[in-house]
Design goal:
The structure is a single chain. By secondary structure, the protein is α+β, with helices and mostly antiparallel strands. The chain has a domain of 76 residues: Dna Ligase, domain 1 (2-Layer Sandwich), CATH 3.30.1490. Helices cover 37% and strands 26% of the residues. It has 13 helices and 18 strands. Strands 3-2-1-6-11 form a five-stranded mixed beta sheet, with helices on both faces. A five-stranded mixed beta sheet has the order 14-13-12-17-18, sandwiched between helices. Strand 17, helix 11 and strand 18 form a beta-alpha-beta unit. Helix 2 crosses helix 4, helix 5 packs across helix 12 and helix 7 runs antiparallel to helix 10. The chain is globular.
Amino acid sequence: MSNQYEAQRAMRNMRKAAMQRGVIAVLDVGTSKIACLVLRFDGTDKFTGVDEMGSKAGQSGFRVIGAATTRSRGVRFGEVSAMQETERAVRTVIQAAQKMADLRVDHVIACFSGARPRSYGLAGSIDLQENVVTENDVSHVLAMCDVPDYGDNREVLHSQPVNFALDHRSGLIDPRGQIGNRLATDMHMLTVDATVVANLLHCIKRCDLEIAGLASSAYVAGISALVEDEQELGAACIDMGGGATGLSIFMKKHMIYSDSVRLGGDHVTADISQGLQVPMATAERIKTFYGGVVATGMDDRDMIEVGGDTGDWEHDRRTVSRAELIGIMRPRVEEILEEVRARLDAAGFEHLPSQQIVLTGGGSQIPGLDGLATKILGQQVRLGRPMRVQGLPQAATGPAFAASVGLCLFAAHPQDEWWDFDIPAEKYPARSFRRAVKWFKDNW
């Protein structure tokens, strides 16, 4: 844990230095596409550290000066599966973005969707030595949170204080400077598979880039696709990517739960490919142009030319009805939404005051998906688009770029995390006893 703490602190310092120089890139490594945006900071609202706890990601202070996207290669379920292929794709997209921005980029902030995330809720409290809460008191109460034993091959990706309580007053965003006797906090901690993170970091380093931050795609997609009221009152963001569907729940402007389903838009394409006996590229085209999940009376008569280049005249001139295509797509989409509902139920989503659900990501663009999601998830569902940011090309304003835009906001206005405070890393109470036991085992 202490190693992870130091690594995250080092990334924060690197990000700070990059922003002071004025340029940083964000990299969204997905299963179907890899996107890169180059940001220039104009100095009006530069990253200066921790000013306001839990501040809403604003969009002042930076401008997108370079953007590029390429087809992802060597990535499955949001995780690197073929290092050389992924490295080539990352190099391609970085070079294209640098060319558009007309400058070289050394530091990137990356996000990814896989790695089997797990959420934990932590709590800690201390008695204050003096009546006024200082930053040291905040560090101390965070250090008192009882960290669970989350396993050997796991790493902490996000660790955010989501609530502070001073005596009997709860729901405080920033307790510093306030008067009281006892300070308590609730934290949300997200752990991911350490091997997946190590592979991604290694891939980015092989591209001669320094990594200045890591984030979960579901988290940053929620930052950009949820409006402020939704983040405040309680909402879920479902980021439907190509190989994985990320899920994040926000409350009081903080992420309080995250999970992922290892199914996405590529699985729908694979079903079409098998069902119609066509190549994956053809299946993707048919899904994009003619896909849907709700059949009407017209769809039986609406014929689609499948096409092909096998050389068999009959086979290459086949047609299928749109109703048949919907019959192939709908079961897989329903399966994804059922899995998402199971995750939401496990998180206790029905107990939140507001239960808005926002669909985003490339897979959310299937016509009729919002209506089907309303039936299966049983809540208010809307389609989300990323927030507008300065300089963003028109081609990058769709739901598929929610994570990329959210990563820009995350870069410019990071929420407070554990690593922002000078916590004595060796004083984590839950780890100390286990560390002592391990020392005895190793040395006796």
